[in-house]
Amino acid sequence: MLRRPQPSDSEADLLREQQRFLTSGAPAAASLARRPDKRRGEAGEAEGGRSSQENAGNQKDVVTIEDLPDQLPSLTPAPPKKSRFKASRVTFEDEDVEVRLDRQDTHISAVLSRIVERDTSCAQVSLPAFTGTAFPKVQHRSQTGNQVPPSSTGGKKSIFARQIAAQRFKEGKTVLESSPKASQTQRGQNLPPETWIDTDISDAAHDQSPVVSGSRLVTGQGLGRSEGSRETMRIHKENQAKLEEMSGSEILQEQKKLLTQLDPRLVEFIRSCKAQSVPSSTFPSEQPRDKSGDEDLPENVNQESSHASALLQKPIDVEMQEKEEEEEGELLESSPAMTVEDLPVKPQKNWVHMNKLEPDKLEWMRNLPAPRKKGTKKAMEARFDFAGTLIPPTEDLPTHLGLHHHGEEPERAGYSLQELFLLSRSQIIQQRTLALSTLANILSKARSGEYALILKGSVMSTLLDAGLLFLLRFALDDGVEGVMSAAVHALKELLVCAQDEECLDQTFSWFLGLASFPLLPSAQEEEDEEDEGLEESMKETAREKEEKKSDYDVATQDVVKGLLKIKLLPRLRYVLEVVRPSPRVVHDILQILTRIARHSLSSATEVMNCPRLMETVMAEFLPASWTNSSSPKPQSVYGLPLAGAMKLLRVLATSGRHICARLLNSLGVRERLSCLLSAEPGELLLEPSEALGISAEAYRLWAAAAGYGQACSLYLDLYPALVKSLQSVHQLLPSSNPLLPLQLQRLLALLSLLTQVTHTAGCHQELAAGMVSARGEECPPPPPVSWSHVTGLQPTLLGHLKGLIKSLDNPVERDKSLALIPAYLVYLEAYYHQLSMQNCFRPVETLQELELVTSEVLLPLLHHSTVQSLIKNLGSSSVVCSGPVPQSSHPGPEITPSLPGLACSGWRDRPGPVTPSSPFPLLTGLGVLLETITGIHKGLSCKFTGFLLSESVVGYLRSCSHATPTLSHTRAWLLRHEHHLLYFLLCLAHRLVPFDQDVAKHASLYHQVALVLLPWLLPGSEYMAHELLSTIIFSKDFISEGHSGGPEAVELGELKLQEDAQHHTSPSLQTVGALLREACVQLPSIRGCFLTHLAHLEPSVLTSRDTFVGRNPWISSHLLPELTGPTLPSDWPFLPLIHLYEQTGVSDGGGLAVERLPQGSLQAVTHCLQWLLLLEVWREEALQVILPVAKLARLSCVFLCSSDLFLESPVQKLTWGLFRLLTRRSRLDSLDLNVPPPGLASFQDLYTVLLAQYEAVSFGDPLFSCWVLLPLQRRYSTTMRLAVFGEHVGMLRSLGVTREQLSICIERFTSPPEDSLPLLRLYFRALVTGTLKLSWCPILYVVALSHVNSFIFSQDAAAQEVEAARCSMLRKIYYLTDEVLRNHLLLFRLPQQHSQLGFDTYAQLPPIRAKRLERVVGLHASSYDKGD
Questions:
Q1: Which residues pair with 772 in a beta bridge?
Q2: Which of 248, 388, 790, 1274 has CB atoms 3.0–4.6 Å from 205's, for a disulfide?
Q3: Is residue 804 within 8 Å of 820, Cβ to Cβ?
Q4: Between helices 1072-1081 and 1083-1093, what is the axis angle to 10°?
């Protein structure tokens, strides 16, 4: 018998056993079977059988291989095996093989390296439940009849859970609850004590014999195991015994008492613990209860917990009505479980898995509940339809609209913003597209202000805070073109307002309409703690700080910067270049790029520098040649010129001259302009509206380039085409033609181009002479167009203007003429302004020509009835005079701080400067022309007196003098144009006031308007501010009071005031009249002083002048400076004082920054105070914009600038006069020191510095003393009085101001009585210690006396501490050794301004006070009288 090989056998033993096996001929224990190769299509079984037979017949241990060649194969690689899965894999040629192997590696280390051990430190460990069987019995579907019915297990258990419950029920582990009583009697018998909470009181109300089980509230934690369980059980048994002794009504009463005493959050926590610890199967299912019991019992745990979660999710602003709450509660409770009868389709017996009904899984098939029938005061979540319309909660819409879903509030139609966000990230393409389209519609309606009166808060702000930018940016990366297109459209609706762009296009042809403000958010200064204490060179720059910010932080502050930071521009370039989307998407992208270019110069530069972006726009949408489109709306706009692309170039060009030069020279814009403008719009092989639009935008782009002195060589090349286009004014389309607005816009753009070319040609002579500008910079090279090239256009355009004025009589042509006349007036102003600068200027011929223009053009235009009716609309169209529009009448569009806009939505439906009925474009063009021609021919000014004195103009100016317009992006672009009109009206008045008596009567009105206009002027208008300061503001002609008895009238008023007051209550001071007379004499010096202190604005003034007068070659950008605020601060009359304080005032470490004042400081302060006195007396309304507390703070610089400046005679007199004006009764009532002055944290900080300065340098100066006493009035903060009587009590010795010197009624210091106990103690201490005496400080002596006397004899109920302080003070006063002070404190009656002491006293204590003194002191005090 053969034996098996053993481990101890050697190799010889194994060979020997092998030989014995082969010689015995025994069959092998295993046979070798060859598997077929499926890839070669071999038959497995046949070949396998044949090979096994051959092997069985072969007695030798030989391995045979089929098709084995006799010779060894060459060392060439064998052909690779083919894989069935290779074709489905995607590989790249340049992909590294190692990377692919690492990615597909399934080695065990790759799995083990990602194993993370679960943290079980906080997991609860519980012993398994003991059962009678080793393993759970296998359940079969045939045994489902033995399952527990769903109603007994709570109705929310699966089939398997009910089988387990039935098994436990048989074993006696769980009691099935079929009724509340059964659940009460058996609930506590089967669960361990530590898993139970106390039995619910409401359950105990139904059954009063609960079984002792265990406490779920008292766990015994902290005690030992045995002691803890015993103690817990003992407490639980006591509680159960007490419950058994109580009746149901007593239990309910105690329950309500507990609920009112306990914290609601604690009650909710206890109930949530019970809901978590008790299995759902142990709670009774929905059982019908007694109706009376339902009314008495509180809401169940589920309802309360759901209500709490709802409160956490969204707070309720206003509570609902009680009836509505009851109705909703009934609806929630009366929702029966789903039954077979409720199913729309009845299940059949042969349906698999439908033999058992699971109601919780079929709830979605239930019919929708009825929508709300009544309105509610509760804030509800807004829901929108697919068009973005808000759906009211009470509206019942049919379900076939697709607006119902299975989310929250399924009965309400529509989608909330949160649901739309969720839907936009769906895996289904249609859902993503639909969600993004709906968001786009919502954004469009929000921009138009449709939600302003319906929804609380801002929809756009809510969406941006929720991350809309990043949602749209992710959607732009979607590979599906439909989703990407919807994202582009939503982004366009977020960024772009079509009506804003339309308004900017309307004002392009106005005076200086080419310039615009950058749409930057308002700058918010951020205080960085890391930079505190560092030198300026060590601090981080703004760019470095911004680079460190996250994308979300940048997008929160500035939406456009956030989009640029998340690489929006490269993605848009990819969409345009690679995806080549539909026409609507192309137009949306071009509008988005235009809005980004309007943001700032840096954003426009990023658009220009984005790789291949502008090249793609130029190649695809502004081609040099194209073919005619067969359809009016082509399927693709690629290869066709688009007006949107040309507008993008125009906006980029207005941002800076360097960008404009790059467009013209590097991108081939010059050739595109020649191609598009050399032919008429009808010859461009484009749709008529598109042809007119692109032609108008081409003219505007050319005008922007000509505004820098660029592209003027095209004027010489295209001169015939320009003259031919000008003749279209005689071939205007009828008013009913929809293309008429586009034709008018094209003609206006052409006139703007000719105006800019005229300005550039007028600078040719100066540039050719090689002059150097005032700033020391080299002048640019002269333009190719000279003055002789543009003189031939003036007669033609003047003839056009005459024809348009005549056509005003025709009602059909009136609107067209009114739209075109302003542009012609602006052109004539440019022509005559530049003509006066040329060497070829002939004064006599020009003066005659101007007289003809005035008599034949300007006066007929001005006296025309149509223009007169327009002038009457000045007030209604004004932005300055119209305050904030009420939200209820005109709901404004939504504007977020991070995405500013012009808020022009609905501009056609409300009055404004841009509407067709507005007189602003016409009057501004007329005003700028009158300013130029009256500067050349001064005798023409008197012919326009009637215009300046017309009732409409005077009324408009009077309204402006009282207006206080607010500054924002939404108003700044319109305020700028209205400021131009006001400036030109004032310039006309400046020429007429010295010569025309009728106009001189309104000189004070013009001066008032100039004063209020000066701090309104916006960045870019510095030249106008300089001209106003140089001409009108300090002109004697406009301060008519100075030479018409004004100072004398003020002196008479002073005398009258002193006569009316008894015993000269006002101090006998230098009269203000003499000071005003001296100020009027010094007006030229005052003007020089203020211009000197505004010298830092000189670069801005020169830049603004170049734009204002048309020095185009020197203009660097048509983008105005950032809108950070007005050019001059509202408190500009205080500038000399503020500058002096900044140079020499109190430093951070205390003391003065310099020892000696700069030269001329006294004169500058004197001029400043003279100007302030003049304004306070004669132009009080002009200073109303400055808060009284700000005036007081600014004037305090007089005392803080130097140690002796306030002692100088002129400064002393002027400051006394200003102090008297500030302390008049009407002014004191409006002085609120609790409001922090602009630039200061609080007035109290400034007052602390004033006190320190007073102690150091005042020497008891009465003026400084009055200044320090002013804030100590009773109605102001107690902090300042505490500072005087606490830290600076030593100054009381030098505050020797008399009642005659202080022009403030003493009652303002003593009434009402003081209620600050610390201050009263300081008053008392200063009096009894002798720090405060009548001879040293009479004012504060009376004040302290009055407050202490009122306090000690007060009959008001007070706290124990206050009453003890009263008694203590009264007792100490009684025992004072100073008889005079004791009499003053006890017998004080009332302050008396004209008394020798400053107050009246009782002859003896009144009975009430005497009784109080006797009660406190314990003695008879009736003998106290004045004799004592």
A1: 778
A2: 248
A3: yes
A4: 70
Report the half-sphere exposure of 677 (CA within 13 A, side-chain side): 32
Nearest C-alpha neighbor of 1372 from the set 1329, 1408, 1405:
1329
Cα radius of gyration rounded to whole Å, the chain: 47
CA-CA distance, 437 to 576, in Å (whole number)? Answer: 20
Residues contacting residue 1269 through CB under 8 Å, at least 6 positions apart? 1295, 1297, 1302, 1304, 1339, 1340
The answer, yes or no, to whether residue 836 has pLDDT greater than 90, is yes
Q: Residue 1400 has what DSSP assignment?
A: E
- Residue among 572, 688, 608, 700 nearest 647 (CA): 700
Residues paired with 390 in a beta bridge: 384
- CA–CA distance, 704 with 752 (Å, rounded to integer): 9
Give CA–CA dist 663/674, Å, rounded.
14
**Identity (one letter) of the amino acid at 1002?**
H
Other beta carbons within 10 Å of 1167 = 25
Give the whole-angstrom CA distance, residue 130 versus residue 1007.
101
In angstroms, the CA 1057 to CA 1180 distance is: 19
What totals of helices (H) and strands (E) does the chain contain, helices first?
66, 2
Q: pLDDT band at 197, cuts 50/70/90?
A: very low
pLDDT tens digits, one per residue of 589-611: 999 999 999 999 999 999 999 99
The 10s digit of each residue's pLDDT in 530-561 is: 555 555 566 667 777 778 888 899 999 999 99
1215 phi and psi, to 5 degrees? -70, -35
- What are the structure tokens assigned to 101, written together? 């192997």
Q: Is 131 helix (H, G, I), strand (E, B) or coil?
A: coil
Q: Which amino acid is at 413?
A: A
For the chain, how many residues are written? 1428
Residues contacting 790, CB < 8 A, separation 6+: 754, 757, 758, 761, 831
CA neighbor of 1405 nearest in space, from 1428, 1421, 1381: 1421
Q: How far, in Å, are 639, 640, 674, 1293, 1427 from residue 625 at the CA level?
A: 8, 8, 12, 93, 115
- Which residues lie closer than 8 Å to 565 by C-beta, 6 or more apart? 551, 554, 555
pLDDT in tens, 951-1001: 999 999 999 999 988 888 788 889 999 999 999 999 999 999 999 999 999
The average pLDDT across 1245-1264 equals: 92
In whole angstroms, give the CA distance from residue 483 to residue 1005. Answer: 61
Residues 651-709 have pLDDT tens digits of 999 999 999 999 999 999 999 999 999 999 989 889 999 999 999 999 999 999 999 99
Tokens 């597909």 found at: 104
CA 578, CA 481: separation in Å to the nearest integer?
11
Residue 1347 near residue 1320 (C-beta atoms within 8 A) = yes
How many angstroms separate the CA atoms of 765 and 1070, rounded?
A: 59
pLDDT at residue 336 greater than cutoff 90: no
Rounded to 5°, angle at Cα 894 from 1120 and 381: 155
The DSSP line for 935-981 is HH-GGGGGGGHHHHTSHHHHHHHHHHHT------HHHHHHHHHHHHH
Residues whose CB falls within 8 Å of the CB of residue 634, separated by 6 or more in sequence, listed in order = 583, 640
Classified as helix, coil or strand, 1027 is helix
Q: Residue 1391: which H helix or E strand, with range?
A: strand 1388-1391
Alpha-helical (H) ranges within 558-677 are 559-565, 568-574, 583-599, 601-609, 613-621, 643-654, 657-665, 669-677
Q: What is the 3-state secondary structure (H, E, C) of 886-939?
A: CCCCCCCCCCECCECCCCCCCHHHCCCCCCCCCCHHHHHHHHHHHHHHHHHCHH
User: Among 294-303, 956-965, 1388-1397, 1406-1415, whose mean pLDDT is lowest?
Assistant: 294-303
pLDDT range class, residue 45, cuts 50, 70, 90: very low
CA angle 1084, 1088, 1092 (to 5 degrees): 170
